[in-house]
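haha ok so turns out i had the wrong file open the whole time. this is the CORRECT one, sorry everyone. sequence first:
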Amino acid sequence: MPRGVVDLEGLQSPANRALRALEPRPGRPFALTKIGHVVLMVSDLERSVRFYTGVLGFRVSDVYPETMMKGRMVFMRCAADHHGVALVGQAPGASLQHELHHMAFEVATLDEVFGARDWLKANGVKIEFEGRRRAGCQVAVEFRDPDGHWLEIYWGLDQVGPDGKVRPPEEWRECFTLEDAVADAPPGQDTGR
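then structure:
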C-alpha cells in the first residue's frame, strides 16, 4: 500500500462509486449485529496459543482434542463471548495472506495503543506499522503473530451514524508514528493524552 497517498480522483472513479452505492436487499429476515469470531489455521498450536495468551492477553475457553478436530482446536476470548479467536493446528506453514489480510482488536483508550506498542516490542514482536491509517482514521499498531497473520490493535475508529455519512478523504490524517498521530488528529478525534 502506498504510504501517504490519498487519490481523490481514484476514490471517485465510476467503479468505486458503484461499489459505494450498493445497498442491502430489502426483505432480509435477519440483521447482523457484529463480527463474531475468527478461526485461524496455525502451524504450531502450542506456540500460537502462548502468543495469543501471553502477549495479547486472550484466555482459553475450551480445547478440542485431535479426536474432535484434526490438529486440535483452541477457543480463546478477550471479552465475555466464549471465543473471539480460535486456532486450529492444521496449517502446513506460515500464512501467505492469500485470503485474510488482517484481523484487528479494539482497545478502550489511546494510552492502551501506546502501551501495546511498548509491550509488543518488549516481547520481541516486530512492529509492522504504527500511527494512523487513512479511511476510518483509527490510531493503531500492527504486527504479525508467529504464523505471519497480520494483526492490529487500535483505538478511535470513526463511527458512522444513521445518516450513513463517513469522514471525507480531505479530513484523513495518515501518520507513521503514534506520536505523529496524536499531534495531527483529524477533526473531531480527541487525541489529548
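The chain has five helices and eight strands.
again sry for the mixup
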